[in-house]
Amino acid sequence: MTIRHLTIFVAVADQGSMSAAAASLYLSQPTVSQAIRELEKHYNGLLFERLGKKLYLTERGRLLLPQARSLIQQFRQIEELMLNQGQSQILKLGSTITVGTCLTPFLIPKLQKNLPDPENLQSDVPRSLHMPVSFHIPVNVPVQNSSH
């Protein structure tokens, strides 16, 4: 049993059919059917009753569904945590005095509109004309992993 199996199981339960679940997951219908068969074999019992073209959860399937949802959510949280590990949560912008003076008045308001916490925008104001202007902006940009 894998997260992939559970994800497919939840999709079938939500969609009510193998073909609709397959379409929502961008998988073939036989792939979805095989994953459900593997889960049913692993847990020694049917997870769905097949009545016509519609699938209904069995008692065993109803027991699995909330646990599967929880595990999938925990897996996504772990992925987000681990994939973001070691990445800076601060966007640092720097420029010369001339560029900073000309562009900053236009750039900062746009950044403030798009930041989750615009009040944390910090500016290091140069003490002399030879020091660069820099801004430290805390950001929390979600990382999307295309393999899941």
Structure notes:
The C terminus is likely disordered. The protein is built from five helices and five strands. The strands form two sheets. Strands 3-5-4 form a three-stranded antiparallel β-sheet. By secondary structure, it is an alpha+beta fold.
Keywords summarizing the entry:
alpha+beta, single chain, 5 helices, 16% strand, 148 residues, disordered C terminus, 3-stranded antiparallel β-sheet
How many individual helices? 5
Helix content: 40-55%
Query: Which consecutive residue ranges, at least 5 long each, have pLDDT under 50?
Result: 125-133, 142-148
The dominant shape is: elongated
Number of DSSP strand runs: 5
Mean pLDDT, to the nearest integer, reads 79
Query: Structural class per helix/strand content?
Result: alpha+beta
Order of helices and strands: HHHEEHEHEE
Q: What is the rounded Rg?
A: 25 Å
Report how far the terminal alpha carbons are from each other. 16 Å
Q: Tell me what portion of residues adopts beta-strand conformation.
A: 15-25%
Spatial order of strands in the largest sheet: 3-5-4
Biggest sheet layout: 3 strands, antiparallel
